[in-house]
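Thread: "does anyone have the structure for this chain?"

Original post by V.I.:
We have the sequence but no experimental structure in hand. Need at least a predicted one for the grant figures.
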Amino acid sequence: MMRTAYRIFAAFLAVSLAFSGMSCQKPQQGTPDWPWVDPEPKPDTIPTPPPGPDEPEEPEPQFKGKPRYVWIDASANFRYYANSESQIEQDLLKIKAMGFTDVIVDVRPTEGTVLFKSDICPAATKLAAWVDGQYKFVNRTETFDFLQAFIEYGHKAGLRVNAAINTFVCGYSYGNKSVGPVFTGEVPAKWATVVNTADGLQSSFYDGVQGTVFMNPANADVREFMLSLIGELAAYKPDGIILDRCRYDDTGLGSDFSEESRKAFEAYIGRTLDNWPSDVFAPGTEALPRTLSATQKSWMSFRVKTIHDFVEKASLKVHSISADTRFGCYVGAWYADYYPSGVNWASPDYNARNSYSWADADYSGYGFADHCDFMMLGCYAGTKNIYGNGEWSMQGFAKLGKQKIGNKVEVSGGPDIGNASGFESGGQGALIPKTIDACINSCDGYFVFDLCHIRMYDYWSNFKTGIDEYLKTVK
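Reply from O.Q.:
Generated one for you, tokens below.
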């Protein structure tokens, strides 16, 4: 397909500026911020199955076949769960009844606050969501432990419960409303990424900023803060921890050109640069030149090394605190177009240099898959591209991603059923079983974004049908 992820994301950004709000979004690698307005949810058609009278309080999950994961975005589902443990319990029973084995509950939304107990990061007390035809904030007044409730009720239902965090984020601005620790001063403004714009170097945190504010992964203080936060999360001992948005910010090649990044890059290449940032990229560069200089290729490898090294330390942190908790990352499956994010999610055994002009001899060595126990691939193709062998088909995404990651890591892939082309307005229930078939048989498991779309488009029975069809093939 001729389009690139960068052009797609730029288009999304342009559309988002025309809308006052976005809902149930899953951004780029952690996803582009999807601008489509979701309709109000339909009534659920699968009843909540009552627990059996002799059912143990926390039965050991017994799973048949490959794992099936459903993502639960914090903001998009906040209206249901912020103040209701009973709603959490009911929905987890429904998810189990559909045939899923796992939930992935987002406990650090893009605002940069948290939904678990932390001594270093503020709690999420309000998140924006699409409610009653308007984009508004949902306030949390209850004090129950949000993550612990999901763990307890999930295990009681017979599900594995994985916790996901948006990693290098510190705030979000919705039009004239802004939330997150960078806006309240609880995160230093100097931690925000510095962008190489056509008008010069500019902090991504400024008056009038729109969308997600990212932190600079090359900043040592940022990394230490995030590792400490991941340590607090690991103390809950969830079944798994998944890093989302563990990457550079949405400006892609424009990020990060701070003094911290300059010094780190100069140390990496072993020499000083005379003209910053032009020795790397001219101001305003949005796409790679046809031929890259040695310095530019080194820059590409420096960025993926920065993310690789953080992922390695995060994995060690999780396993040192909770040996039984699996560690992994969510990434977008479009590897050929993923380099602007500064991420090499493949195995270090995969030689990117053989296929991609932007990879030098060091690039492949900074693949971080070997530091993960499991990974989620966003196979976010549209309704007309479920089956296929190349990128930008769900099946192709899953197959090629598995090949790049290898057999040492469990890889689960699947669709965005609310934002990808053709899914925006619902009515695609008949395709849900096909997405399951295309993805689960091309890698090690199935992953779907997001529960909010299952609810609003009434896909409960469609997922049960698709999973039941898959399970009939399992011996």
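V.I.: this helps a lot. The two ends are 37 Å apart (CA to CA).
O.Q.: and The first helix runs from residue 5 to 18.
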